[in-house]
Amino acid sequence: MCGIAGLIAPAGQVPDTRVMDLLADALAHRGPDGRGRYVRDNVALLQNRLSIIDLEGGRQPILDFQGRAIIANGEVYNYLELRGQLDGATFTTHSDCEPPLHLYARDGLDFAQALRGMYALAIHDPLENRVVLARDPFGIKPLYLAQGEWGIAFASEPQALIKAGLVVAAVDPQARAEVLQLQFTCSEATIYPGIRRVPAGATLVIENGQIRQHARRPALVAGGTRSGDAESLLDQLDRVLTESVDMHQRSDVPYGMFLSGGIDSSVLLALMARLNPRPVLAFTAGFSGTGVHDERDHARALAGSVGADHVEVDFGESDFWALLPRVAAAMDDPAADYACLPTYKLAMRASQQVKVILSGEGGDELFGGYGRYRGAMRPWPLSKPMRRNGTFDGLGVLRPLPGWRDRFALAEKAATLPGRSRLQAAQAIDCADWLPNDLLIKADRCLMANAIEGRVPFLDPEVAEFAFTLPDRFKIRNGLGKHLLRLWLERAMPAARPFDKKRGFTVPVGEWISARPDIGALVATQPGIAEIALPGQVEKLFAAAAPKTGFARWSLLFYALWHQIHILGVPADGDAFDTLSTR
Fold first, then answer.
1. Span 355-397, pLDDT tens digits
2. Per-residue DSSP letter, 436
């Protein structure tokens, strides 16, 4: 896990050293263990390294004997298998990021088809005079592009492109509307005009000052379902999950896991306990003294049932106000997901003991865990389109937000393929935007801000293909999602009680905001809020403090802080009140 960046100057020009330094400095938090730089002709590649595998020998850039160079962010989990398949290749390191370079030499632009992992990487091929970018199919690892008279640049975070002076910090109105109404932005667009995402699964080629897409590796198969009874499917599930978790534990540094007590993290705990000779180190967050359900008792019991070392992290009202600016600063590509708060503090605590964390992102999307999927499965006219209403619909707080659902609708259309069930189409919609542009951005930024690598075993290609092609009845049954996963967990860890009714994970942001009635007036005066809100309505929204408006209040507070930090350049040095009071 690292931070990478690159600058491709116009032909005949040399990359600007000052810009290279600024890019590297802006990504320093992603890789505190070393810096690498490569400059050849008009191409510069930069990497800040978080050492996980081949601690001494895996420094980047890595070059082959023909002068090709690679930098990468992430992990290629099948690197050992790939090394065995690359007959004749001469390896100079034991790094998991070297096999893709040799695959490129052998397979050309189709090299990424063989990779099993999470990655955003760049290869400079001076023989062909081109730079190749590739990103994993689910978009686990981020990569952003910008282009101008100065050439083409890429980076692991958009804030690096802004701090390097390549792009002006500004807000795209449509993307802003998506953040407010959906809590994330859609497709390749970002909230910054002039910065776009490299599409998940894409291989891009940069040559002659142009960017073209060579291929896009889909995260999900086109459709269809696999056959089999419960017993045979449980055996297959055990095989693919065990293999994935085993690969995701490949590391030369200590690792642990985030344990929420839900189905997905309980499955990971059961598998890690089976595969590790030492006790698993599990971290759980809880919210003392609030009205939301606290999972720590259940998580503690699960950890005890397999002999895991359990670390409990309390997140309270004081943490909320103190850490919120730091969280907003980390979320430069904004997702108004309140789960970023405990994730950030868990990462702070975990960084004292480990450098790698496994977590359960992707389990709901692949195994059918969300309640919204049940509505989408109903036949017309009873079916309910996902996210048909936005957070601020009917509240009368903001000026019109046109176009907030347009790009989401395109994802809906693209997900509805022949041969897919309604449930599969709903899952594919979530995997197109919600998963990469909310959940995975949240995990990446909150962990990398604390120099922690996050790994997500459910988003392995083998697990994904198996889960997505399960018959619907093995995903949702009797009003419960993840049916087959629950069956597996019932056998592997009975203490998890997987068929008990579970409460959804909630962070009590509404309670904490309501406890500070003075925050409403402060939010209303922010430039980022004043330009989108109707006069006097923000104060009324915060004063009313109705439970159903809790997420709207949280969204405005988050966006106000995000705008102060990333658009106006206010430092995130104090608490939320300090940050919002700075002019």
1. 999 999 999 999 999 999 998 888 877 778 889 999 999 999 9
2. I
pTM of the predicted model as reported, rounded to 2 decimal places: 0.96
* End-to-end CA gap in the chain: 36
Cβ-Cβ contacts under 8 Å for 206 (sequence gap 6 or more): 8, 130, 131, 132, 133, 152
All residues at 6 or more sequence positions from 432 whose CB lies less than 8 Å from its CB, including other chains? 411, 414, 415
Q: CB within 8 A of 548, min separation 6: which ones?
A: none
> What is the per-residue pLDDT across 385-434, written as a single tens digit (0 to 9) for each?
889 999 999 999 999 998 999 999 999 999 999 999 999 999 999 999 99
Residues involved in catalysis:
2
Burial environment of residue 111 by CB neighbours within 10 A (0 to 12, 13 to 18, 19 or more): buried
Torsion of CA 123, 128, 129, 133, to 10 degrees: -30
Query: Residue 459 has which token pair?
Result: 């988003």
Mapped onto helix, strand or coil, the DSSP state of residue 127 is coil
For residue 272, the SS3 value is helix
Amino acid at 525: T
> Phi, psi (5° rounding) for residue 500?
-70, 155
Q: What is the DSSP string of 462-524?
A: HHHHHHHTS-GGGT-BTTBS-HHHHHHHHHH-GGG-TTS--PPP---HHHHHHT-TTHHHHHH
Helix, strand, coil percent values for the chain (each to nearest 5)? 40, 15, 40
| Other CB atoms within 10 Å distance of the CB of residue 543 | 11
